[in-house]
Amino acid sequence: MLEPTGTAPGLVVPADLAPPVLVLPGPPAELQAMWPAAVADPLVTASIRAAESIRQETVRIWGPPESELAATLRQHEVDRTTAGLEITTCMRDGELEVVTRFSPAAADSYASLAAALDAHFGEQIYSTDGRDIDRVVADLLLDHHATVATAESCTAGLLAGRLADLAGSSAYLVGGFVTYSNEAKTAEVGVPAQLITDVGAVSEEVARAMAEGARSRLGTTYGLSTTGVAGPGGGTPDKPVGLVHIAVAGPDRTWHRRLQLGGDRTTIRQRSVVSALHLLRKALTTT
Amino acid sequence: MLEPTGTAPGLVVPADLAPPVLVLPGPPAELQAMWPAAVADPLVTASIRAAESIRQETVRIWGPPESELAATLRQHEVDRTTAGLEITTCMRDGELEVVTRFSPAAADSYASLAAALDAHFGEQIYSTDGRDIDRVVADLLLDHHATVATAESCTAGLLAGRLADLAGSSAYLVGGFVTYSNEAKTAEVGVPAQLITDVGAVSEEVARAMAEGARSRLGTTYGLSTTGVAGPGGGTPDKPVGLVHIAVAGPDRTWHRRLQLGGDRTTIRQRSVVSALHLLRKALTTT
Prior knowledge:
The structure is a homodimer.
Chain A: E1 11-13, E2 21-23, H1 28-40, H2 42-50, E3 55-62, H3 66-79, E4 85-92, E5 95-102, H4 107-121, E6 125-127, H5 133-143, E7 148-152, H6 158-163, E8 173-178, H7 182-189, H8 193-199, H9 204-218, E9 222-228, E10 243-249, E11 254-260, H10 265-286
């Protein structure tokens, strides 16, 4: 038994033919306090020493549907082998994650799998070293000594809020504009009122004007924008719920994407934020 | 057995002396499809008819610590009775929630408890009808035909993003400013650069200037601001991590709160957003 640090004691249960069973409390503070004693127990030390180290690698992909990834993995299994690889895939906010666990003996199998993913998905792969898109974008901005400003309609600040999630974000996030009403789009980032009248607030033209306006108003390297119909109301046959235009204005050009997203209001707004981060990555890796 | 609508069938298990046991699938789509058949089963219908209806009431409180609520509940139990009341309390983002479930026979006990809470906490109670702070603030803004604009530093858009969470928010949210850098505070909402030099960006004076600037730039009824040290870096002895100033500028005056929050960067930013919503409620219920 390991002395309790809260109410629950820890247990190390010996087993004849298998590694010992280690039982630890769930609350992080209790677990952390007990950890040194747990790993110092001779039975635990011995089984840690005897254990084979398991590697875990993560490939993160943006763009393709989950079915395309599944087909690629199936084809690779046929062509070569995935023996010794424990592969799990996950789709979240449109991002695909391939997590593979394997023992050192299967390192060649994994190298072959990684090469196959690289050959098929190429630049759609945005991380192979564990970083998420927030960290990837932050590192690119830092590397380029680049700064950003936002102009957000449907996401209404969530994109800027996310850009500020990481400590140290003041190195690249200068500021932003929540241009929720049409009047705010004109007053804050100079979108011509006539343009909104002509093509509507949810349009490629307005998304571009917002991104360029944010960039110009705050003198940043990049300007990011979102404008869309988050629902549940406000959709029309031409501009249904889930239609979102995003743009990234850079020094030399402006990138634009038209998204047609499914899901509820929260999902549409969240997915718009993630899409804008990926469009910014594209801008940062293209220039 | 109830016909499966997905892969799992439903079950109605009769029991001699107790209500029947009803087993239904978890996936919402499967559950919903099976629901009409489940409640139409004669055993289920009979036990629903025989069941006593249970009331559930929720009192939401902003301001006091959880210990004060616990003391109030203990005192009430001594003075009167809480027999027949199943009371649970929960603290989240600084908001206290008292959920009470009781059978109609205990309605008087509950009325007495509700009166005791009202007597002790008064205006700190912001909801007794199930609405959360987002809905309470939205309804107040709609009732007052009032509009809002934001100027955010440490929360960097999360407050505006939250004000846009509810469908129909375009009726009151005009826009906002993410004034993350000092330069953005000056350029976007007109905070004098000299003021920032004199008292620092994290100060009552700058919070007030930001709220008033946002209000004036977008011509809204209210302007809301946040400026603070979200950490983990950036703290000083005078202005430690967790120090946040928030302000709400209205037509006649500006409200301000100095917060000293615990927790990590995410918690501090999240709690700042919630505090700003409650300060806006105060402004809306005071004027």
